[in-house]
Amino acid sequence: MAARAERRSFWTWGYVSDEPSDAERAEAARGLSERIGAEVAPPATPQIVDIELRKPRLEVPAALAGWVSTDHAERVTHTYGGHSLELLRAMRGEFVDPPDAVAHPRNEAELEATLEWCDRAGHAAMPYGGGTSVVWGVNAPADAEGAVTIDLDEMNSVLEVDDVSRAGRFQAGILGPDLEAALKGKGLTLRHYPQSFPWSTVGGWVATRSGGHYATNHTHIDDFVESTRMLTPRGWMESRRLPGSGAGPSPDRMVLGSEGTLGVISECWLRLQKRPVFRATAGVTFADWANGCNAVRQIAQAKLWPANLRILDPVEAAASAGLGGNSALLIIGFESADVPQGENVRAAVAIARDCGGSIDDDAIVVDDGDGRPTGRAGAVGAWRNAFIGVNAGLTAGIGLLSDTFETAITWDRWPAFDAYVRDRVGAVLNEAVAGGRLSCRFTHVYPDGPAPYYSFSGVVPVGAEEERWRAVKDAATAAVVAAGGTVTHHHAVGRMHRPGWEKQRPALFGDLWRATKRSVDPNGIMNPGVLVDP
Amino acid sequence: MAARAERRSFWTWGYVSDEPSDAERAEAARGLSERIGAEVAPPATPQIVDIELRKPRLEVPAALAGWVSTDHAERVTHTYGGHSLELLRAMRGEFVDPPDAVAHPRNEAELEATLEWCDRAGHAAMPYGGGTSVVWGVNAPADAEGAVTIDLDEMNSVLEVDDVSRAGRFQAGILGPDLEAALKGKGLTLRHYPQSFPWSTVGGWVATRSGGHYATNHTHIDDFVESTRMLTPRGWMESRRLPGSGAGPSPDRMVLGSEGTLGVISECWLRLQKRPVFRATAGVTFADWANGCNAVRQIAQAKLWPANLRILDPVEAAASAGLGGNSALLIIGFESADVPQGENVRAAVAIARDCGGSIDDDAIVVDDGDGRPTGRAGAVGAWRNAFIGVNAGLTAGIGLLSDTFETAITWDRWPAFDAYVRDRVGAVLNEAVAGGRLSCRFTHVYPDGPAPYYSFSGVVPVGAEEERWRAVKDAATAAVVAAGGTVTHHHAVGRMHRPGWEKQRPALFGDLWRATKRSVDPNGIMNPGVLVDP
Hints:
5-stranded antiparallel beta sheet; homodimer; alpha+beta
């Protein structure tokens, strides 16, 4: 497969062609001005040639010059991941810690040469994935003496498809849409759609344990990994393709969540699905958030394994699905390549109704293989469209704060957890942000607990974004950890969540992971500062 | 909960009361004599007082004397796990490497004191679980200067049950039946039934990644672990109760499969189920093994997630389920606490019939909550009873070789894998074993491949059991590894599978795991020789 034809935007999600126009950004600013009753204007669209970068602190050896460069635009576009504060800095032309060079190895030999060079010279090596990290996982560390970003965008092929076992072998640099396009002709699909899907890679998904399409049962990419191949500074580590195993500790489970700190994932075998034919969808409203959450719990515990089981709280249901503001919306979706799903959706709806949910019988949409669209109309469809659109650049720099945090918690603690988090984060929002709004939905659900996803937004003085964001984020992390949750269900740890993760994980586990890392990365070059210090 | 009232047998599975009588053993020997046309007689039942043991090479500190002892019977009953060669040695009074002392800590403080003593004195520490290891995972290493078995049979309580999240907190020493008995009154169940269930423990299950009741979807205990608490020589490592997380590498996944090499698991939170109310079962016969396997694949890939989906090859179907010897038997079972399962079983049967399977409509048994027994009659019931009975002592010492090996392999390679394994193992059986028999069933099934379980048996000269077993086992391991499988799907690595595992796992992973181990067990006292050398 050819390399990506188009350059990624350095200040918004996606490609240069995804960048909002000056007119669109001015329109967004006008909308905000009306809302807050004060004039705000967007900063000028940054131009790549205007960005000032520190001189590269290294020289690329001649033997590597075919795929490693210190090109200005390359360094600019690989400085940041996808977090809103990063995009804000990019828009303002602040590029304090760019990588010194960017590598685009075209094969494993070039990847080996790249890592050998970094290891020998002591350069930090940061695997880039698709650059969509929202947890500061792809940046050059501030204290590095040389830093090389490794972008596998040229290693983006589908190497094999096994349609008997339903699995495929993918180079790590392949993007979501390219992977799905290659599988479509074979009637197969990975069906892993993190929100970053258009721009993120197989390698990034596996390194960060990304969360995908399925709201229940097989929620993380972990569940679809059949084997991994990773280059560490000490050499290759490749696991065997196995449908299951109990042979000691699992090598793949060390690679999953390693976030670039052990090595660079070069390829993976992933489990695939046949494309769904049978579908069934229902949107159930609840006058009461607690009742809705209770319905989610009972449906999850009935082990019907719906593909979708996402509840939006009243704030979110109003903003994303057009509801009135007093009702929560539970979206239930089943799908199968082989078996009609009408009975499953009716069983789930029965549970939801028993818990106080409302839905008309004729709003239960069942496609028994006839291609009748499900889930694209009404509130469910409105939510679907809101989820798919991500355009951080539209409002960057006009003082609109907008971010999310996500977690998981067992059901017994959920109501108190939710109240505590809303109280603590709400207090800081009230203080630090004008018109602050906090809302919640579940992205994934387990029989023993939900994965709640909180969104917050509001208006802050231009220039104060980082300080105000820090206040809210710190309150959120502190509350989540204190109330028993995880700092992240599927966004990864990176550098952002590391302080919270250190409180959450067993203390001894830090020593253990450092020792693990040292065994394959003795010079500590792999993504330093992510997860642990070397 | 009180400690186990009864002593475990040192030469057969189970308690002293499970030991077969002299008359039963003589009857088994008569049966074999008739079959082979030569007279064999069972060795005398060994008596614990007659066993000669090496003197303990250590002295138990006075402070630990309340729970650590060098008692003769204690050392005898903790010398071996449950593998047939071990039981054979026990029956013959061969106890070359007994532990020097056995600890039964009654609480975590006593467990800490035990491990501190071992670490300070350099004694090997072997967590015993329920002593049912069939892979030589609980023995004192031959080269230890002192060896202490740690048996948590006094730490066997249910500490908490959370019936909202459906999870329970269990001390690691609790046995399967005690755990289920404690949950029954709450309408809950773990439903994890490894074949060792009556005698094995939560700690052992987690340390060895045991395989359980569910043939599809959640097959290993791994899937039910919500958190773990483990004492290492460097201190405690306790993870947070979470329904799911993507926060870096998972601490629990380091504990799962650690096989006692990192520390002693003291307690776990495990996910529970409501007891099933709705059940449906079908036994489908196939004239052709390949067609039956194909049906299993297609049912697994339809993601109906049956609790049971086990196919027996014609040899096994004849021996365990009473079929004629020309048919394979596929046992399909669904269960749910909430939802009727008739439609699911009919969907699975439809797939099986499409693949050439035979079953009468009235042989599909559906219990829609009325308590109608399913799966206890006919061929399905016969197989169920054969699975539950394990009595290795009955035929030990009369020259009957009987063992199993189990693996997992992707579907694309399965037919060639099966042919290759049968060819290689069959050749050795023909040479080394009289009347050698090799059969196969699937214990667990994944969308991308089965977990085949092979049984072999035959008659060998009394005294040659170990040599002949070694020939067959080596052929089996070599074939499994060469053809792409795993050395174990759920029996663990122990010392038995270590050479095969070394070929199977990434070479670098050995270094990585040794470094991981050293970080929490710097003196290498934890179960030395299992998985890796210190």
